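Q: I'm writing a short methods note and want an example of a predicted protein-small molecule complex. Could you take the sequence and the SMILES for flavin-adenine dinucleotide and return the bound structure as tokens? Please keep the output block clean; save any remarks for afterwards.
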Amino acid sequence: MMQQIAIIGAGIAGLAAARKSRAAGHACTLFDKSRGLGGRMATRRAGDWQFDHGAQYVTARGPRFRALVEEWRAAGQAAEWFDGAFVGLPGMSAPARDMAEGATLVTGCAVTGLRRDGAGWTVLTAEGPADTPANGGFAAVVLALPAPQIPPIIQSAGIAFGELAGVRYAPCWTVMLGFGAPLPWREEYLRPDDGMIAWIARNSAKPGRPAGKETVVVQATADWSRGHLEAMPDAIGAVLLPRFLLASGLRAAPDYLTAHRWRYALVEQAADMPCLWDAAARIAACGDWCLGPRVEAAFDSGEAAADAVLNGI
Ligand SMILES: Cc1cc2nc3c(=O)[nH]c(=O)nc-3n(C[C@H](O)[C@H](O)[C@H](O)COP(=O)(O)OP(=O)(O)OC[C@H]3O[C@@H](n4cnc5c(N)ncnc54)[C@H](O)[C@@H]3O)c2cc1C
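A: Understood, no commentary inside the block.
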């Protein structure tokens, strides 16, 4: 029998859970506090500028995710950047929309809690029940969020997952630089060993990016980001721009500069289980924090959560 499933978080884990649940014939509603889909597999657009400011590329080791990346490739939604590193086309978030196909989308909706109403679940926001037709009748709920964001929501439902306590994330300050003309620079990416910058991507060198401009993404190390977590974005840009110029050997002033803080960027300590499932409440929790700091781990965890739900409803 078709059931209604609520999935909170439309990053790759939530999208994987929705895709698998839909394929099994159930109806899904995806809630996300952002306006877009994809979570940390993200593309930032500002005017004519476009940056992959979260995940830089995906790798596919297991057969399930390899098959999905192959589908993305066949549909023109992804291409290989370098040796087994695939990027979305024209940006990292591009494959997300197809993964959500057939699901009801409730975006711009920050979920704060869950309430049991008879046999079903109601999804709550700070303003009250979320405004979507199936609300109140969800047979199961999947929480596909970074681990630290799950406890306040499940507490309201009267359940707890003790495994969340051991999960640890590293933060990441990311600086996006836009230059109006191509730079005299051949590198596709750099990993400077300077204790401050972990990774520099020549974003505009990825396949399918807009031509004629140069965009660069600079990601700070976990330690440096942690030490500057509460700094203002302008101050982060002012420090990391000269470090980028030093590392690249370039002399150029950017036409666009902004910084973004990812408080929960990369999993440092995972729960080491595919997902969590409370059979009595019919609530699952999943995300990269279950298996490791990669898009593929989030995908595998989302599929595992869907399996738990499909076996349990
Ligand atoms: C800077 C950076 C670089 C990275 N580089 C790589 C890389 O090169 N390769 C790689 O494989 N991985 C990389 N990763 C890791 C990868 O992006 C993540 O592991 C993966 O995208 C996590 O997916 P997820 O679905 O578990 O979580 P997320 O993508 O975080 O999705 C969670 C979703 O929940 C939503 N949400 C949160 N709270 C609420 C709420 N209360 N109500 C509703 N919605 C909510 C969020 O808006 C988000 O869309 C990188 C991550 C970062 C930040």
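A: Remarks, as requested: The pocket of flavin-adenine dinucleotide is lined by residues 8-14, 31-34, 39-41, 54-58, 110-111, 144-146, 149, 172, 174, 219, 262, 265-266, 287-288, 293-295, 298 (CB under 6 Å). Residues 42-92+168-269 form a domain with the Polyamine Oxidase; Chain A, domain 2 fold (CATH 3.90.660.10).
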